[in-house]
Amino acid sequence: MEEIIVTDSAEGRQTEMTRQTRQLLGAAGAAGDPLQALYALPGVATADADGPVGTEPVIRGSAPEDNVYYIDGIPATYLFHLFGDSIFDRHLIHSFELHPAAFSSRYGNATGGVIDVRLRTPRNQDFTATLHTSILSAGALLESGIGERQAFYLSFRRSMMDLLISEEDVNEAAGTAGVTIDRFPVSEDYQAKYVIDIDDGNRLTLLAAGASDFIGVTFGESFDGFRDPDFAGPAELDRSFDSLGLEWSRHGDGGRFTSVLSRIENRDHLDYGAGQRQHIRFQRHISRSRYQRAPGGGHELSAGVSLEHSRYDLDFNAKISPCGSLDRDCPTVRRRAYDVYVGTLSVSAYELFAEDEWAVDDQNTLRLGVYLSDDDHTRDARLEPRMRWERAISERLSSFVSIGQYSQIPQLNESMPALGNPDLDRIKADHYVWGIRQLLGGGLNWSWSAEVYLKDMTDLVISSRQDPLADNYSNNAGGRSYGAEFLLRRELSEGWFGWAALSLSRSDRSNGATGEALEFEHDKPVLFSLVLNRRIGERWMLGVKWNYQSGARHTPIVALAPDASDRSVLNPVYGALHSERYPAYHRLDFRIEYATPKDWGYRKFYADILNVYDRRNVEEYVYAPDGADLIRPPPGFARDIPVRAETGEGLFPSLGFEIQF
User: Which backbone phi and psi does 49 adopt, to 5 degrees?
Assistant: First the structure.
């Protein structure tokens, strides 16, 4: 909901997972991945039409790129592999916090939502190894104490699908879509922590984390999306990040100080077609410090500073046309000259925040904060006030109001030299949230909550196709997202737990250059999830999840027209932007788990059945001039348009085994 916090107060010092996180791990369809369970929470939708197989979540009507991610308080490049699973070993997550709107002053550079993942502290114990494998992935976790004041863990995982399914089988199943897979997607990730308790008040923590994804395909000349021979041929996407951080934390005398130094190196390489490439390699050096203290009088003060320097090494040699989310279609680049850019971009930025959480009396709590940011790229300094007031109406009923201002640096492709517009300003948003929560039942096992929210966005980025006076891109768009969310939850009692979540919303955009009101592609008015888990005895756990989402919006094709440079090529003519919807998405998942404790550890068997009733959810309608697998043109399309429906996976079973010794 407004601030779904799954954490404890000591901020990552705990060696065990929180109770709520354990429940999320058991949700069906998540395959043991708590971040996948995000899609069963209110206000969280998927960026793709076919549910949680995409890369990043849509949170309360904001685009995926509007979100920001943290790992142990450090900004992260991404938390999700290419096909939706998170980059974390489930055994290492202590907690995560989802802040869908009006979040506190310690978070910045986001206008959408915040996901803050906290990895647990290594246990000071005898050496332990945990091995797990399934159809989806396999991995190992090693953990041990070293003396009385030191401990570590090391985890590594790798996807398994490429070892179980051959490229030939996939290409045969894909039919004649014009794409063949040369190298099945491979993903890897690792995390490591080493802690040294210097004394009772001081701790050093060394954290390393990284992830990588690779896929290789070949596009045929008949591939629907390109309409340009220069795009045909082999293509490879190779992305990765590696990070190393050192944290010093000190507590005592009523206060706590934490300071972190971190270095992150990212690589994002895309090679395709006739010698085209888009290579981005960048390094980030981050220094963050935070101080917390409770001086008395019901006040809890916190303040922090963050300094960051990023260096981007850019190498582009490709046909690139500025294109944004408000364009009906990225234009064909047939016979266009290659855009060439090789250069370096450096960006320095700082953030400051201060916050006071004041328990005014037994019924009222007031949180006042301010966030200040600036950078030498946009040169658009921002001072953003934020506030939250919570009132306990009774012992079981409470309500709150949160408001705040937020901003975000534009995406690199929009603001880089030559191919973008370096003079873009920050994207801005104002958030308003009101909520209410009540505990039910004598045992307080039941609770319900409801929230209404509004996000008012300004200075959104659009392309020069939408704003002809712009230099590739401009801050000449706005938008709104508003809605209501309801959550009914039962905590674990009498062997079962679960929740039901309903979201009703609307998200739209406006073009400041033309004055048009436009639909937003990720507008999904209805989201509903039902999660139920039942524990049978001490060894069995059964779970089911049903998820429903309104179809994402798409732009229909209303006619065909000869290409201006080659009249033998017919280009689609698109209708009103995002004026139609894909069919609604829904899916039922099932999970069963059996665990056996042993003197030397435990062993566990589990099975996930995704999409139990084999629903073929539509991912995309594709213009198909090759005439393969055509369907009747969907609503909004002209009757003579050749169209193919790309659908997601049907029923998919996955078996897994885990052992700890």
Answer: -70, -25
Per the prediction, the chain carries an average pLDDT of: 87
Strands 618-623 and 93-99: unpaired
Return the H-helix or E-strand segment holding 414: helix 412-415
Question: Residue 328: helix, strand or coil by DSSP?
Answer: coil
Which own/partner contact pairs does 632-641 have at CB distance under 8 Å and 24+ positions apart?
A: 634/556, 634/580, 635/556, 635/580, 636/556, 636/558, 636/575, 636/579, 636/580, 637/556, 637/557, 637/558, 638/557, 638/558, 638/559, 640/560, 641/557, 641/558, 641/559, 641/560, 641/572
Token pair recorded at residue 105: 């002053």
Question: Each residue of 367-382: pLDDT tens digit?
Answer: 999 999 999 999 989 9
pLDDT score recorded for residue 339 = 86
Are β-strands 68-71 and 114-119 bridged in parallel, bridged antiparallel, or unpaired?
A: parallel
pLDDT score of 387: 97
- The rounded distance, in Å, linking the Cα atoms of 270 and 286 is 27
Task: Please tell me the distance from the alpha carbon of residue 267 to that of residue 316, in angstroms, as a whole number.
Answer: 14
For residue 10, pLDDT beyond 50:
no
Residues 371 and 206: their CA atoms lie apart, in Å, by: 28
Please tell me the predicted confidence (pLDDT) of residue 603: 92
Q: Is beta strand 557-562 parallel, antiparallel or unpaired with respect to 643-647?
A: unpaired
Question: Among candidates 315, 366, 307, 370, which has minimal Cα distance to 338?
Answer: 315
Contacts of 218 (CB under 8 A, 6+ apart): 179, 180, 182, 233, 234, 235
Q: Token pair of 530, please?
A: 């039902």
| Residue carrying the six token digits 């320095």 | 348
What pLDDT does 112 receive? 92
Query: Do residues 612 and 590 make contact, with C-beta atoms less than 8 angstroms apart?
Result: yes
Angle at 406 between CA 4 and CA 110, to 5 degrees: 65
Query: How big is the CA angle at 319 (ends 316 and 322), to the nearest 5 degrees?
Result: 90
pLDDT digits over 90-121, tens only? 889 888 888 999 999 999 999 999 998 889 99
Compute the distance between CA of residue 49 and CA of residue 582 in angstroms, rounded to an integer.
Answer: 7
- Decide: 457 and 431 in contact? Cβ < 8 Å: no
| Separation of first and last alpha carbons in the chain | 39
- Is residue 263 a contact partner of residue 284, using CB atoms and an 8 Å limit? yes
pLDDT in tens, 19-70: 777 777 777 877 667 677 788 889 998 876 554 444 678 999 898 889 998 8
pTM, two decimals, is: 0.90
